Amino acid sequence: MPPVSSATALSVIVPMYNEEEALPALVSRLRPVLDGTGVLYEVLAVDDGSTDRTAELLEKFRTDWPELRIVRLRGNSGHQAALRAGLHSSYGAYVASIDADLQDPPEKIPEMLDLARSENLDIVYGVRSDRSTDTGFKRRSAGAYYWLMRRMVGKQVPAQAGDFRLLSREAVEALKSLPDQHQVYRLLVPWLGFPSGQVTYRRGERVAGETKYPLSKMIRLAVDGITNFSAAPLRLATWLGVISFVTCFVMIAWTLVVFLLGKTVPGWSSLFVAMLFLGGVQLICVGLLGEYIGRIYTAVQRRPTYFIGYDSARGEAGESAGKKGN
User: Fold this and answer.
1) For 86-98, what is each residue's pLDDT tens digit?
2) What string of H, E and C letters represents the secondary structure of 168-221?
3) How far is 176 from 192, CA to CA, in rounded Å?
4) Is the residue at 259 inside a domain?
5) Residue 145 in contact with residue 160, Cβ under 8 Å?
6) 171 shares a domain with 71
7) pTM
8) Do 274 and 177 belong to one domain?
């Protein structure tokens, strides 16, 4: 039987999507680390609608690892939604999250737990002090992402801190109280402002399989982060409008002066450039407004970001599966 909710000291959430190649290595490294903590724990493997043998392998590993708990979503809802499902389903007094690819070392989890307990912290971030195993493009794009997030959202966002972290039960309950929207936890958790600390580590190579965060998803994550946590793009649209107005005013004044001096020359270049400039600014502004209106529309609909199809703990406890993720 899985650990009971009132006694579980540590929950470890592992969102996964098509991770059959990485699962054996994950289990072989994660289980000894957690067994060595000497606390009652659970591992929530959140299967985000995998289409390979991930679900089959999880059931196999669970036969001799009772602390392994399987939460299966009905469809592929995305990494952040899977992480949210794990947070909402967790029992532990402290909740850690880690990816299945082992680029973030599970050996740091006990250090996070000790730091949180000794200094009474609600949040402990895993900060990547060395990313030499990543490609040059990955390092540069990640650096640009964190630089942009810190400029747009605020200095409270730790540089080089992803979704490898440890949260207290109080922090988890605060996150659970927020509306069920498309959250970006690497920005939302610092926004809480709870007492926090850091544990640094060297980022490893992916143990197997392919990355689930290609450039397109990283760009989407950046857009979600900016539009969810900052009104800066709207102010940018305002400033673009002001700049375009001043530019057009100067061009009008210059045209009148040239006309009064009798030096006007028939032509279309200046008119063509002005039309392109104004059209581009207007489209940018409309696009930015559309991003925010789209998020307002999504929030008003109040649709859940995921649906749980199966929870091994609740199933054994006789509870109904397929509960809405809220």
Assistant:
1) 999 999 999 999 9
2) EHHHHHHHHCCCCCCCCHHHHHHHHCCCEEEEEEECCCCCCCCCCCCHHHHHHH
3) 12
4) yes
5) no
6) yes
7) 0.72
8) no
